[in-house]
Design a protein that fits this description.
Blueprint (H helix, E strand, L loop, with lengths): L12 H11 L7 H13 L4 E5 L2 H11 L7 E5 L4 H9 L3 E5 L10 H11 L4 E4 L11 H10 L3 E5 L7 E2 L2 E2 L6 E5 L12 E5 L2 H11 L3 E3 L4 E2 L10 H32 L6 E2 L6 E2 L6 E3 L3 H10 L5 E2 L14 E3 L4 H8 E3 L8 H14 L1
Parallel strand pairs: 2-3, 2-4, 3-16, 4-5, 5-8
Antiparallel strand pairs: 1-9, 6-7, 6-13, 8-9, 10-11, 12-14, 14-17, 15-17
This protein binds pyridoxal-5'-phosphate.
The site of pyridoxal-5'-phosphate has 14 residues, from helix 3 and helix 4.
């Protein structure tokens, strides 16, 4: 079996986890949590990092901290993983879905700007750009649109650790920005997330809220309704070991991306995700477009190669069917119908990569 995107635990993971177990520091306090937060914040060009149990809880906390709630609206791209939209829904606010660019598959900024010019209402509080597949849109433009309409920006950078736009790291523009360390991400803690920010007050509040808003641990005094969202030390220990290997992982992901692009170029109707000028992507998960999506998926499965169609667009999901969806041509539908992701783990061998390519070529 050739998996899609699995963890590569080849560094100090066992050593650091053993240290947690031997010293008894396995829970939510411990030096690896702080170290991991610092490493992720430093790497992504942020001053502060606050670790959370996963990316979804980080996004929820960010929404909550901005006071987003009933009657409010948050702009989210229509092509994203469900967690982005769920984080908005948890606060009882409504997402407004905007279609994506047909070439980059990122939030369509022309559509976003046009929508806000014609339809801005004060209930729209924030934009959540999602760096889909570790690619990016023009974040400078997002920020200038946000400034014009006085909107908060929360970058869903879950997939974009190691991605840059104009030499600035993904997840360093917004008020708060969230990275995920789910098992399929470029590095993993098994499950985990980090909220990054350059705002000290946000960082302090995120830590406070994620630890049940505990003011005094001895008297059990809590000053507001908080959450039990803190990442535990034993998982952060894995994260520290993974961060040490991140530069190598990025190199490997880029090599996989270059290999696939080279081998699959000109094969049938295959088209690649466009990377716009200035973006240096982490190449997290190789995904391409072909109208033979179904046939390729079926054939790969027959060869025990794990591949996946792209996410169902948010407007097609039952719980978001009543939400606004802003589109001209419904590119999301086409992208979902025709795109598929193929094995991209950092530990893939040349032989496995060759096999994936050969099976795809045979479909044509
Ligand atoms: C775009 C996107 N947003 C949010 C998440 C949620 O992260 P997590 O699984 O860590 O909760 C993920 C990944 O799983 C994701 O890919």
């Amino acid at each position: 079996m050739i998996p899609l995107s699995i963890p590569h635990l080849a560094g100090n993971e066992l050593k650091y986890v053993t240290d947690c177990i031997e010293t008894g520091w396995v829970s939510s306090a411990g030096s690896y949590v702080t170290k991991f937060e610092e490493m992720v914040a430093d790497f992504s060009g942020n001053t502060y990092g606050v670790a959370a149990v996963n990316g979804t809880s980080g996004l929820h906390l960010a929404m909550h901290m901005l006071g987003i709630g009933i009657g409010d609206h948050v702009i989210v791209p229509n092509i994203t993983f469900i967690a982005s939209a769920n984080a908005v829904a948890y606060t009882k606010a409504e997402p407004i879905f905007i279609d994506v660019n047909p070439d980059t598959w990122q939030l369509d900024l022309d559509l976003l700007e046009e929508y806000l010019y014609n339809n801005y209402v004060p209930s729209i509080k924030a934009i959540m750009p999602v760096h889909v597949l570790g690619n990016m849109c023009d974040m400078d433009r997002v920020m200038s649109i946000a400034r014009k309409f006085n909107l908060h920006v929360i970058e869903d950078s879950s997939e974009a650790l190691g991605t840059y736009y104009n030499n600035r790291h993904a997840g360093s523009w917004g008020d708060m920005n969230v990275f995920s360390f789910n098992g399929n991400k470029i590095i993993t803690t098994g499950g985990g997330g980090v909220i990054c920010t350059n705002n000290e007050a946000y960082a302090k509040r995120a830590k406070h809220l994620s630890t049940q808003s505990k003011v005094n641990p001895e008297t059990y005094f809590h000053d507001e309704i908080g959450f039990n969202y803190r990442l535990v030390n034993v998982l952060a220990a894995i994260g520290v070991a993974q961060m040490e290997q991140l530069p190598e992982f990025i190199k490997k992901k880029k090599a996989i991306d270059a290999y696939y692009r080279n081998e699959l170029k000109g094969v049938g109707d295959i088209k690649f995700q466009k990377v716009q000028n200035g973006v240096d992507p982490n190449c997290w998960l190789f995904t391409f477009y072909s109208e033979k999506q179904n046939e390729i998926l079926k054939t790969l499965k027959e060869h025990s190669i794990i591949a996946r169609p792209f996410w169902t667009p948010m407007n097609q999901l039952p719980m978001f069917q009543k939400s606004k969806y802003i589109t001209e041509y419904d590119h999301s539908k086409n992208i979902h119908k025709n795109c598929l992701s193929i094995p991209s783990s950092v530990n893939l061998s040349d032989k496995e990569l060759g096999k994936v390519v050969q099976v795809i070529k045979n479909v044509f």
